[in-house]
Design goal:
By secondary structure, the protein is an all-alpha fold. It is 72% helix and 0% strand. The longest helix is centred in the first third of the chain and has 40 residues.
């Protein structure tokens, strides 16, 4: 019995370490796309030219597409990337590896720094932290936590559940292709490239379903904070009374597409992030199990 409990404890340790390391790797690799996604999400104006033509209530948008946004950020902020965005990427990496509630203030500050552009209202994380405390109090560090907690359960469930489903399908596919398939070798029958594809599809599916809650979270995170006028309308204090009110207001004022602002860079980020995470998890898990068990 003790041997069995010890084996379960080692297995749990392997899974936890592999998941933490894999999450850190994927967040570091995909952080630049997160910056673009956040710029879209906190912009009240439309993010596509064709939508802008239909909506006369807004002035011309700062960001109007993935390539245009990428060029604009590099053109305006290239000299400052390594200084200012470093803290944003670092906080994002920590947030991805820690518990949601414990790391949430870092995630909020990452959003603030990534959304502001040039000229910067907040030159570093410290200034953003101090201004947030002064304007919102300590609870301001957890603005947008509700949609985050609502999102994380279905997102994690969809991502891991769909990954397991895709992996099982891949095993069946390999079995169909190979008549000499050995049922005892199911785990080893899936190649690294196939695991990468399973993670890619899982990340895409989960993000597509849960993206509107991520938009709401970003709006609540920057609500009431300073923003340079050239980046569009500022989200004033008490614009949204809560998560459901924010969903309703975005839907009414910006249409269904408003709930999916930033979806393209988000998918470009989350799909490879899921692929890298699960591929890294599988290999790191095998390695840790080898040395710890």
């Amino acid at each position: 019995m003790k041997s069995e409990e010890s084996g379960q404890l080692n297995r749990a340790l392997v899974d936890a370490l592999a998941g933490a390391i894999a999450g850190g790797i994927s967040r570091t690799v995909t952080s630049p796309l997160d910056v673009i996604k956040i710029r879209f999400q906190v912009q009240l104006e439309p993010t596509t030219t064709w939508t802008l033509l239909q909506k006369e209530m807004y002035r011309p948008s700062k960001y109007r597409g993935l390539l245009q946004t990428t060029k604009e950020i590099f053109r305006e902020e290239e000299d400052h990337l390594q200084l200012s965005q470093y803290w944003s990427y670092l906080s994002g990496g920590f947030a991805g590896c820690a518990a949601t509630v414990g790391s949430y203030p870092f995630d909020l500050l990452r959003t603030i720094l990534a959304s502001q552009g040039e000229p910067k209202v907040y030159p570093n994380m410290r200034s953003a932290f101090i201004d947030t405390i002064q304007k919102r109090g300590f609870k301001g560090l957890y603005a947008g936590l509700s949609p985050t907690l609502v999102e994380i359960i279905p997102y994690a469930g969809l991502q891991f559940g769909s990954y397991d489903t895709f992996k099982r399908w891949m095993i069946l596919w390999n079995k169909h292709r190979n008549p000499d398939f050995n049922p005892a070798m199911t785990a080893e029958s899936v190649s690294s490239f196939q695991l990468f594809l399973c993670g890619l599809f899982a990340g895409t599916f989960a993000k597509s379903v849960c993206h509107p809650l991520d938009v709401v979270k970003k709006r609540l995170q920057v609500e009431g904070l300073q923003r340079h006028p050239k980046y569009g309308a500022r989200i004033e204090n008490s614009t949204y009374k809560g998560m459901y009110h924010a969903l309703k207001e975005i839907l009414i004022r910006e249409g269904f597409t408003g709930l999916y602002k930033g979806i393209i860079p988000s998918l470009i980020k989350s799909a490879p992030a899921g692929a890298v995470t699960f591929l890294a998890y599988e290999h790191i898990s095998d390695f840790l199990e080898l040395i710890l068990t």
